[in-house]
Write a structure and sequence with these properties.
Elements lengths: L9 E7 L5 E8 L8 H6 L9 E3 L7 H11 L2 E3 L13 H4 L6 H10 L13 H19 L1
Parallel strand pairs: 3-4
Antiparallel strand pairs: 1-2
């Protein structure tokens, strides 16, 4: 999310629905890979229902993640294959949904309109997460 006043950075993980409205949001330090934070994000959702599919970029291309999501949650992971992958796992039918990934980017654009989100002024991560939740509430209230 850009430079912060307290260290190297914070990674914001989010889930959005078909309209780009936030369904789940969580924060982590900037160093772990996104694959390790997906389940934490799913557990931090605002609603009780689980999504049927998750669309991610090439960083989410992992056989272990696909199996865990399908086995534990019943969620299909749609992510294009990395260039170094030997056995291709995604076909064209599932990747047609990948073109809708702009909706999560729109969700992040809505979040960055709030001044405290792009530049993290808060010292404690709990306070920053609270402001993220407040921003999500305001986005949801605008649409309903």
């Amino acid at each position: 999310m850009g430079p912060t006043r307290r260290g190297k950075g914070t990674k914001i993980m989010a889930l959005a629905d078909r309209a780009g409205l936030p369904l789940a949001i969580c924060t982590a330090i900037a160093s772990p890979n996104e694959v390790t934070l997906v389940e934490q994000t799913i557990e931090a959702r605002f609603i009780e229902d689980l999504p049927e599919r998750i669309i991610g970029d090439k960083a989410y291309d992992s056989d272990k993640l696909d199996q865990r999501l399908l086995h534990d949650y019943g969620i299909e992971m749609i992510a294009p294959n990395k260039s170094n992958r030997i056995v291709k796992t995604q076909d064209g039918r599932a990747l047609r949904r990948y073109k809708r990934r702009w909706k999560i980017e729109r969700c992040f654009a809505w979040l960055t309109q709030f001044r405290r989100i792009p530049v993290r002024y808060e010292y404690y991560s709990e306070n920053f997460l609270g402001f993220l939740h407040l921003a999500c509430i305001m986005i949801l209230l605008r649409c309903f």
